[in-house]
User: What shape does this take?
Amino acid sequence: MSKKDEGAIRVGIGGWTYAPWRGSFYPDGLAQKRELEFASRAVTAIEINGTYYSSFKPASFANWAAAAPDGFVFTVKASRFCTNRKVLAEAGESVKRFVGQGIVELGDKLGPILWQFMATKKFDADDFRAFLSLLPARHGGVALRHAIQVRHESFAVPEFIAMARDAGVAIVFADSTDYPAIADVSGDFVYARLEAAREEEATGYSADELDRWAAAARAWAAGDSPAGLSCVTDPAPKQPRDVFVFAINGAKVRAPAAAQALIDRLR
Assistant: This one.
């Protein structure tokens, strides 16, 4: 999907263990232990969500990496113990535990870490700046990339955008019916979550909507700002950026079809 003057575009789903996908996405009779092997060849990225709820052993990450093909990328959702707290500046030990559990065993298949905040979490400039300072640039010799998903309207201010850009973290763009969307690009990659899929649509989103998301992904990859998305401040400097787009939430049963339809448009 990438060209010399563009970043790579990867499109995926959240997780791979979901019973309603059996028979709709996964073929009948496919052994559950082979679901990751199948999913990682049907889409080009997976957001690991289980790490939000619990920790895993290094061997788990190594096994997941081994099951996926070359060029595949996992993003990893950070533990809720890091982000669901009153004082974010006190998250240091939780951040260390999360990063140190073995995520680097994913090797070159490790993509960005997603730090997701509750919808009730409001922007506190000093506290949020302190949190961003806790995010490590490397672990075990592996470079780490960070994406932050904020879901309260108080973050839609220039100070927050500037803070994220200074820290080099990507602000997640979320297409959501419940939360405000911030389309300002702040990192050297773009992380988008398509959270408004509808079950009545076979591909979650309509053909026209998928065409628009494909155009947006191409624009992000080329370093441009997609038309029609709301930004708080001026565009970031133009440069090629890797792009991660996940069909996630909404009508989850439609997520694989949405991701595959988007991949088809980007070929």
